[in-house]
Specification:
With 237 residues, the chain is an alpha+beta fold. The chain contains 6 helices and 11 strands. It has one domain: Gcn5-related N-acetyltransferase (GNAT) (Aminopeptidase, 3-Layer(aba) Sandwich), CATH 3.40.630.30. InterPro entries: Acyl_CoA_acyltransferase.
Length: 237
């Protein structure tokens, strides 16, 4: 599946495209760890506060892609040189709550991020069960897990097109909703603007959010950069 715009080509990658998977993992890892894009510093706030290196994060990202790529929800933007300059990767698995540290050694700080994501996911799934009477199952929702863009031009267009590809596919396959954990206002704004995703409110009308100021490892993140990780959602039917 390919779609061509002015500057970039877009496609959903498959498990056979091993070189593209590696390029996608590099794009995601670079944008999360921190990269200068035309004089602007692009970095995920939690990763920026923690002791996480590129090599470890690249391996984590590649392992995720390798384990989910067959589901068909990893879209990439390619420039004219066939470099991956944008990735939106997701899966249709129900969030898994492990509840304990799973990363060791130089990657041990990734446990902090894992617990933040598990906190909001656990609360979302509890709210889902309260609303529906059922546990959330695999294959019900598209979970957008990682977004990374290193394109120097038309960055918002890249995000818009990547999202359109995956959300259109999810709707065509009959999924109920698109779900994500927005870790900073920038990603939240673009998903709201281009894909009509909104901050999720629980049955009591409250946002499901993990506030960074209440986390001893993340409370140095300036509130002007990001205040927390929010569940965001788009209903598909």
């Amino acid at each position: 599946m390919q779609k061509t715009q002015a500057l970039y080509t877009y496609e959903i990658i498959t498990k056979e495209q091993t070189a593209l998977i590696e390029k996608a993992a590099n794009c995601l890892a670079s944008s999360f760890i921190g990269v200068d894009v035309v004089g602007k510093w692009v970095q995920e706030p939690m990763v920026g506060q923690l002791n996480i290196g590129y090599e470890d994060f690249y391996q984590f990202t590649k392992d995720y892609l390798d384990s989910t790529i067959e589901q068909g929800y990893c879209a990439v933007a390619l420039d004219s040189s066939h470099n991956v300059v944008g990735v939106l990767a997701g899966d249709t698995n129900a969030p898994e709550i492990i509840g304990e540290d799973v990363f060791e050694g130089s990657f041990s700080d990734m446990n902090v991020i894992l617990h933040v994501l598990e906190d909001v996911d656990k609360r979302f799934m509890a709210d889902y069960k309260e609303r529906t009477g059922n546990d959330m199952k695999n294959g019900e929702m598209l979970h957008l897990f990682m977004l990374g863009v290193t394109a120097e031009q038309e960055r918002h267009e890249v995000i818009k097109e990547l999202g359109n590809i995956l959300i259109t596919k999810a709707a065509a396959q009959g999924l109920k909703a698109v779900l994500g954990e927005a870790t900073n206002p920038k990603s939240m704004r673009v998903m709201e603007k281009y894909h009509n995703m909104v901050k999720y409110r629980d049955v009591d009308g409250n946002y499901i959010v993990h506030k960074y100021q209440e986390n001893s490892r993340l409370n140095r993140i300036p509130s002007t950069i990001a205040d927390g990780t929010y569940i965001i959602i788009k209903e598909l039917k």
